[in-house]
Amino acid sequence: MSHAQTRICRSILAEHFGPLVEKVCTVLLQRGRSNMSVLVRATDMPPRQIRESLFVLIQHNIVTYAEVPEGTRMVVYYQADVRNIILRDRFPLYIRTVQARFGEESERILREVLRHGRISYLFLSQSKATKLSREQLINWFVRLVDEKVLVECTHDDSLSIDDKRMQEEATEVAKRGGLPLTATEMTKLRRDLAQKREVLYDDTQDTGTKRKIVRDLEEVAHTKFQKFANDDGEEPIDGTKYYRTNYDRLHVYLRNEEVAKVAEQRINKGAGEVVRKLLASCEHKMRRCKGEWKSDAVSQIMLASTLDPQIPLAVDDSSANPVVDYLEALAQDDTRLVSKESEGGGGQYAVNLKRAGEELKARLMESIVQEKFGDAARRIWRILLMMNKLNEMQIAKFALIPVKEARHYLYAMLNSGLAFIQDVPKTLDHSAARTFFLWYVSVPRSTTIMIESAYRTLGNLKQRRTKEVAARARLIDKMQRLDVISGEARLSEGELKAVAQLNQVVGQLICTEVRMSQFLMILQEF
Amino acid sequence: MSGRKGKKVAGPSAPASLTAEEQTLLATLRSHSKGADIDTLKSELGDWDDNSILTCMNSLSQKQYVDFISLGKSGKLAFKARSAEEATKTGGMKDEERIIYRLVKEAKNNGIWLKQLRDRSGLHSQLANTVIKNLEKKNVIKWVKPVKNPYKKVYLLFELEPSTELTGGAWYTDNEMDMDFIEQLSAQVYKYITMKSFPPKNKDAIYSASYSSYPTASAIHKFIGKSGLTTVPLSLEDVQSLLDRLYYDGKVTRIVKSGYAESDYDRMDTDDEDYRDGDEEVRDLDSDVWMYKAVRGWATEERNGWTDMPCGRCPVFEFCSEGGPVNPSNCKYFKEWLQG
């Protein structure tokens, strides 16, 4: 784990959970899988506090644990998940996308789920934080579960994945006689297990929200559940089940929206709608962004029936079948987002999701090149992206700029990790004079570098925000005094001005943080 | 081998008037632009025998009216007439001058590099230098700086225009790439393509997929020619590279012209002279395969949040660290940005 990554994890933890939890989790991040005694030693905190911190972290899906027998004792190992910390920065994006898709009521439910990490329906209905009526709550909660935005927490969710895999491997090895396996056998075993997990992905979770009929006696006997056991017929949601947010699902929504937006920008609103509906047709099957390569092929007739009639598909000289014209225009476009899959049903079309993910990243990088180095550099970058490896002379000729200038831009891009050199030696001695130096760009390679830059930038933004707020600590204290809030004492002219300025600065920083999180999300998740 | 001997003895001689026989021979030779060997000449000049042809040829050669060349793969000796103008020019030259002249002439408009010229002439370098200087003074040859290698002197005949290889073509002015010119011209071309890319009735609509009247390279070539945007004559290749530039910019996209072969055929039948001229070039380049169409959404604003803030453009981004001498808490770029 890089330093920049730890840094932003720490500031997110400090902001969301306070200094104690941050301290515990930082140790987990830096040391990896650790047990209680390691934590006590490293944090110098009383075990009770550590335990409570861990409780918070487990509740928020950040820490997982595993019980491992060591000799006669069972030792519990804790492990922190970096991804789940970093994506806490994207909560605003999740909330926005859910609101846009499912409306205000769902947004309120999601807010509560995100606030608590894991939440049961029972708790949600009693807390009143959503300010929704019972019908609304049931209605939208069921909807979100159906759409898999909320998923049921299983026992496995709290268990460390690494430990789980170690265990699986150990059982497999034991099955084969218990002798240590060779490296190739081990790789094969790991691949098989990964495949098995993929197949079983959906089986681990219950579908629907209804309470299962099978109950053990203990559960029925428990007074808290007594009520639900009695009016089982009325309550459509099992109050005892805990739910968490399914980030992968939200990423799918965000990615699909982003892809539709590209079509919208390149052609027009109508094209955006076409792509959106093309993706919507198989959205329910998409588990995570990196899983699928292509969306399902949809025939243009099917597609036409799902389009929003409000959005016009304008074609010159009123075409007989505008949908086909739009699909063809999209297939013709340089982005190659949409492709024709077969001629059946008047033409079947699909969105190439792998390509779309790459396109989104490439667009991001292209704009970075443009903003940092200007038009000519962007042209060079695009030439390299289209033509793979070229030498300086060729680049200058294609870009119609002097070689000297081309070289200048190329080295600038090399320094920021947006272009790379491949040397092809003519002789075995690898002498520079007898070597071709070919330039190329690689979206995956640049992605890794850009992700690191994004971490550092996010860290910088958070540090600056902390500093800006700390510099006005006294003013903030004063604002929170009871007499100021009640209006007895007033802030002076200068103080009011400072408050306005602080709000503006912090607002700007937070806004940029969200944009950077989105930047990071496109690079990491799509 | 009297031909070769004749060349060796050819001394400095003033252009002399030709005898009637010599003129007949020269006229016959001139009718063969690629040169003719002795058998061809014999068959054309019925009553001449070998000897008289060779004697005549020798004297013509002395007077600088004939070149000896080898024809075809067999390297058979043949003769080629020089133009009258050239004959008068080289007639007054010394041997050394003639050697240099020949080398420069052979290089055509691509020119020959000074060092190569000296080496190949087989003359002593000092002598070669004087001869080259002399020829320069007489306005027989000239030198230019090639755009790719401005430190080399490249020689070519005085009356020739240096090739695009040397000058860099239409985009170069005084050996430098004229970026402003390229920029302005491509902006105009882009405007033109944009105008043709969207239906005039509703700019937000699209043309149907089978639409095939987007401009092609030759159409844009014609547009530039007619518009008077530039006084520099642009070839179709130049226009093509301009279009490629726009394509690489992401401002335009290209689409394969459907039914390319048919439309080509139709065009050949038309009487329009312009079209025919254009067509000749087009077939050489095959450029009308592509139609060009402007693209929306090529601008990059709002695409990334990183370069909109100081870190994305920071010159010391790599050096900046949490508690280092350059750190975000005291960053002056942040300060400017937050105040602005």
TrEMBL record, chain A:
Localization, UniProt: Nucleus
Domain RNA polymerase III subunit RPC82-related helix-turn-helix: 8-67
Domain RNA polymerase III Rpc82 C -terminal per the UniProt entry, residue ranges: 141-360
Transmembrane parts of this sequence: none
Keyword check for Transcription: yes
One GO process term, biological-process aspect: DNA-templated transcription
Annotated ranges, domain DNA-directed RNA polymerase III subunit RPC3 winged-helix: 366-441
GO (cellular component) term, any one: RNA polymerase III complex
Keyword list, A-Z: DNA-directed RNA polymerase, Nucleus, Transcription
A GO term, aspect molecular function: single-stranded DNA binding
Record-linked InterPro entries: POLR3C_WHD (IPR055207), RNA_pol_III_RPC82-rel_HTH (IPR013197), RNA_pol_III_Rpc82_C (IPR008806), RPC3 (IPR039748), WH-like_DNA-bd_sf (IPR036388), WH_DNA-bd_sf (IPR036390)
Source organism, top-level taxon: Eukaryota
Gene3D superfamilies found in the cross-reference section: 6.10.140.1450, Winged helix-like DNA-binding domain superfamily/Winged helix DNA-binding domain (1.10.10.10)
Family: Belongs to the RNA polymerase beta chain family. Belongs to the eukaryotic RPC3/POLR3C RNA polymerase subunit family.
Function recorded in the entry: DNA-dependent RNA polymerase catalyzes the transcription of DNA into RNA using the four ribonucleoside triphosphates as substrates. Specific core component of RNA polymerase III which synthesizes small RNAs, such as 5S rRNA and tRNAs.
Oligomeric and partner information: Component of the RNA polymerase III (Pol III) complex consisting of 17 subunits.
Stated name of the protein: DNA-directed RNA polymerase III subunit RPC3
UniProtKB/TrEMBL annotation, chain B:
GO biological process, one term: transcription by RNA polymerase III
Pfam family name, one: RNA_pol_Rpc34
Homology family: Belongs to the eukaryotic RPC34/RPC39 RNA polymerase subunit family.
Annotated GO CC locations: cytoplasm; nucleoplasm; RNA polymerase III complex
Signal peptide: none
Compartments where found: Nucleus
SUPFAM superfamilies: Winged helix' DNA-binding domain
Record's keyword terms, sorted: DNA-directed RNA polymerase, Nucleus, Transcription
Classification via PANTHER family: RNA POLYMERASE III DNA DIRECTED , 39KD SUBUNIT-RELATED (PTHR12780)
Role: DNA-dependent RNA polymerase catalyzes the transcription of DNA into RNA using the four ribonucleoside triphosphates as substrates. Specific peripheric component of RNA polymerase III which synthesizes small RNAs, such as 5S rRNA and tRNAs.
Full protein name: DNA-directed RNA polymerase III subunit RPC6
